[in-house]
Amino acid sequence: MTYFQCDYASGAHPKIIKNLVATNEVNTLGYGNDRYCKSAAQKIKKACDTPNANVHFLVGGTQTNSTVIYSILRPHQGVISADSGHIAVHETGAIEAKGHKVLTLPSVDGKITAKQISDCFDMHKNDPVRFHTVQPGMVYISFPTETGTLYTKKELEELSQICKDLNLPLFVDGARLGYGLMSKECDITLQDLAKLCDIFYIGGTKCGALFGEAVVITNDTLKKDFKYIMKQCGALLAKGRMLGVQFDTLFTDNLYFEICKSAVDYAVRIKKAFEEKGVNALANSQTNQQFFALSDEYLEILSKKYLFEVYGKTKDNLNYIRVCTSWASKKEDVDELIKDIKSL
Amino acid sequence: MTYFQCDYASGAHPKIIKNLVATNEVNTLGYGNDRYCKSAAQKIKKACDTPNANVHFLVGGTQTNSTVIYSILRPHQGVISADSGHIAVHETGAIEAKGHKVLTLPSVDGKITAKQISDCFDMHKNDPVRFHTVQPGMVYISFPTETGTLYTKKELEELSQICKDLNLPLFVDGARLGYGLMSKECDITLQDLAKLCDIFYIGGTKCGALFGEAVVITNDTLKKDFKYIMKQCGALLAKGRMLGVQFDTLFTDNLYFEICKSAVDYAVRIKKAFEEKGVNALANSQTNQQFFALSDEYLEILSKKYLFEVYGKTKDNLNYIRVCTSWASKKEDVDELIKDIKSL
Amino acid sequence: MTYFQCDYASGAHPKIIKNLVATNEVNTLGYGNDRYCKSAAQKIKKACDTPNANVHFLVGGTQTNSTVIYSILRPHQGVISADSGHIAVHETGAIEAKGHKVLTLPSVDGKITAKQISDCFDMHKNDPVRFHTVQPGMVYISFPTETGTLYTKKELEELSQICKDLNLPLFVDGARLGYGLMSKECDITLQDLAKLCDIFYIGGTKCGALFGEAVVITNDTLKKDFKYIMKQCGALLAKGRMLGVQFDTLFTDNLYFEICKSAVDYAVRIKKAFEEKGVNALANSQTNQQFFALSDEYLEILSKKYLFEVYGKTKDNLNYIRVCTSWASKKEDVDELIKDIKSL
Amino acid sequence: MTYFQCDYASGAHPKIIKNLVATNEVNTLGYGNDRYCKSAAQKIKKACDTPNANVHFLVGGTQTNSTVIYSILRPHQGVISADSGHIAVHETGAIEAKGHKVLTLPSVDGKITAKQISDCFDMHKNDPVRFHTVQPGMVYISFPTETGTLYTKKELEELSQICKDLNLPLFVDGARLGYGLMSKECDITLQDLAKLCDIFYIGGTKCGALFGEAVVITNDTLKKDFKYIMKQCGALLAKGRMLGVQFDTLFTDNLYFEICKSAVDYAVRIKKAFEEKGVNALANSQTNQQFFALSDEYLEILSKKYLFEVYGKTKDNLNYIRVCTSWASKKEDVDELIKDIKSL
């Protein structure tokens, strides 16, 4: 069975494994106070061109989202998000569990606009009894989004500007950041992203690591005491060096980006193959996750060899599936899938 | 200036004031362990025909909603509500602040249906990775709703049945319960309501009292240790007898219902007057709150003598206003308003 | 039965009742936006000599403590308190329920010292892995304390200074403030208190009102958006005017202080009578609450006419009781109690 | 520099590394639904002789403690713990951040007794206003404790019995469980432990793994929906197989216990050497953590070659240090340290 079901189905990139093995017997201090974390943080700051940023390493995406948001908001504030945002739908209420409402805005292609944020803020501000409603306190977006789409540089600049104007920290969930930045349709760089938001993270779990997300805090006002909150949230790994070694490897010789690139190329090829076969893509994805409406017949045939994520039925009674490539996807497997799609 | 702005603009019904004055110098134990609370609870249980219910007296609506919901849900559960529900929009995130997501369903006339609850439950249950999403743990409805509408007996029976089937406690926010039950279009009784839900409250703040909401718990499994949670939530009044005296008065000689009845009649008359004048009602309200789209001209004229709640503009650029009567509204004021509407 | 059991056993001072009755039919806006709240706030600011303070009216003590502390702390911070502090023992974990640890310090006579705070702060600061422990974020004291004692002006100045030095907001729980300030042994004024802390409240529930606590915020950085947090905490009364009328009355013609004074005098007389009889006072109280170790025999005799709070047994197997006077205690009742004590 | 500073200074046991490498390219489902987790759970259930237990794999200790406790308690309940318990002092208020008070009892040798629990429970139960205080809802103990001591079988049976009698779930923090069970002075087995408590965890982070704690739930009433709460708490690893592979390795051929045994032996030898030199042990530890009061002179000499954890000064102005061995400690390093101690 070949997995195109998700991007966290295999272990880590061989170079990471190699370095974990090589450093396994080294003794270090715990909780991120080790040379590997320091080195990784340096390399990340350099790659982001943010020499004054703080870099912290956490374990997983839900943990990172909830820890970051919890560290920023005051009790009466909520976080603005697309209604399709991961924090709004797929984290078992982790944000609410820490006391905050997710203020959802209707999304198009998984994205929200500067205008929507501005309107949401104004509606609240102009409400004469606004203290009866949750105050917008920050903005969360995903890059790429949950449906694989990308904000353009212009869109991101507009979001960034309105957030600055309204004093709302902008937080970018980069769980699949590598796949976003490596998309041919992406017109921003890591440095652009770092400049345009206040805090973001570079996803490792889905982009070559065993696990790990690197939070980059560029806005000085958000830096204070972050490590306390990590610890309280159970997000401070005792053997932090595991995270250091992994990100140090990923940010050596551009590995993080190299390994994400092929996955996006593969995904786009698969999309093209399905579309040529008359299968509709269900999202305008430009990255490694592709969504399709597949007939029972097609699904049955392909499922003999391939594993996809099946979410349920569309209203046309087709199967709503995700085909997901990753840094670990092999060219020969992709070629074969495409051949099999053509033969449907 | 005559107030039609809200139903909490004046003090309490004279009989309540009389009894508060009469008992003012009596000494009692605190925290609800007094004869007045006991007597009021007895009368309420009798009125509800629920001899085994537990009755608790809290101070206000947001406090009651958040305390009740917090007492029922486990950490990973959320409360199903109409998207127009008070807990979803006007409580500054009080439910989220206590850790729970409000799972909103699109409402028609402020109401949700048994089918919607069933679908929401099934969608969650059938999700293969359902532990990534908030589990529906209870259902919240308002009676009357935030737009003044009422569930019919049939609708309520269906809601009740589905909630029983799915093991979801049904909680009814009765902040304006008196106005609901006294509507000519209401086909349920207090006893029906008590039988059809697991926990509900009888609103005092808006229905004749200075303040106070009487929570009635009929489902045995929800009774345990409720008073602890009240105390933790700052919802246990030291001089609980204030609540006891007020509800004891309201549930003597049917006072609660008598005084709510006129308010609803007045509101319906005002609605008729506006409609005859070609002013659109913005909700299908059958109770004491009526919502209209009023031109600037009309609003300006009427605002010289009357205070309404003005929420903002409709998309037709009319003024979205609420006209609200209460137990304290006077017939002569209503007559005059109607006369003035006719003269517009 | 004569009540000396607590200071919330009766209704409100007759002048408050009179004004509530007189204003009962007046219509006002809700949620504290009424003339009475405005007037009361003005009078309180004048009495405190803090023209720039913000004044908010809440309903009860636990509610006030938890709302204030929640509004100040960041997620990883805790509140320093005497181990005997109300928030540490008698609020069913209300502070923890809002996410914060109470950092208790051993108390003498219910009090903590500047030195203790300094040491606690330093111990945390000097801990190389301090992010594994809760960061002290503010200081809570009660005035008078839970055992009826008082901080001297010198002690309070020292607390104030260390809190300023360490940037820890100082919050004073004044649930029984009137009884404290009116004690003969009290060497501070309301103005002193207002100057020496960052936020405090003037207790109404136990000092003449039906209910109500007036929060005074003098530190500008603590003022922002307090009303949102009140609403979220269920602490924003719809008919806020009830609180306004009560505090307006209490702060007219010095009523608040006048009515507390006699209660303290009575309590001190009772203490003297018990001590002359060889009954040990269990706390060094200078205010309206007095604590004694009473034999079964004495308790049995006195309990025929008087109600005390009985907490349990001391280790000498005596009855640990509280005798509590209030603004409502009558001279003749106190005289009779003293006579009966003498006759034991 | 030789590390005796903590038990999480190096990577994982070579067999774990070997298996992680061997399985690195295998594709599996995420979130614990993989063959390795299933196999590891089976082996753990067998080792515990609890065929009906539920086993879940989490990442770290603080995360595990807070997730477990949060999953068990109702809002008004707290967790009973020794005042020296990890949850009470070293988790940055993680328990409080999830809404619950830690009810600390004074400990002797890091332990609490059945009698203390019973007294604490009774004191609460017999309080006439008990709803003003936090209700004891469960009991937390560490095995071994934070100071390296062990409950005897008799002590544990008594704790277990009182917890059953009082209906308080007993939760055992086994972050260093291997070192406890392998102590020569330990008179209980893993099976005993599993039988005597309701939920416990087998620590991996400090006992041979890169990271990971295996929660074993034996009490049926605590099993429901645990995975939802893990997800919400950010404690559900996407590549759960990492945890599965590690615990599968640890519970193959008794590895977990084998590798912990030597560490305890080493620690006891070091303790003996220090004591023979007249250095006082600061705790009655029987496991891999040993605590000493070391003079500046001794510390300076030994610090040239060895790293210890230095906590600060004792009241005798000696250095309060921890010497910590682990599964990774080497015999030759221990021999050398002992030789150097003798030469002091």
TrEMBL record, chains A, B, C, D:
A Pfam entry, by short name: Beta_elim_lyase
Family the UniProt entry places it in: Belongs to the threonine aldolase family.
Keywords tagged on the record: Pyridoxal phosphate
Cofactor: pyridoxal 5'-phosphate
BP GO terms, sorted: amino acid metabolic process
Identification of the protein by name: Low specificity L-threonine aldolase
InterPro entries: ArAA_b-elim_lyase/Thr_aldolase, PyrdxlP-dep_Trfase, PyrdxlP-dep_Trfase_major, PyrdxlP-dep_Trfase_small
Keyword 4Fe-4S: no
GO molecular function: lyase activity
Origin: domain of life: Bacteria
Domain (Aromatic amino acid beta-eliminating lyase/threonine aldolase) ranges: 11-291
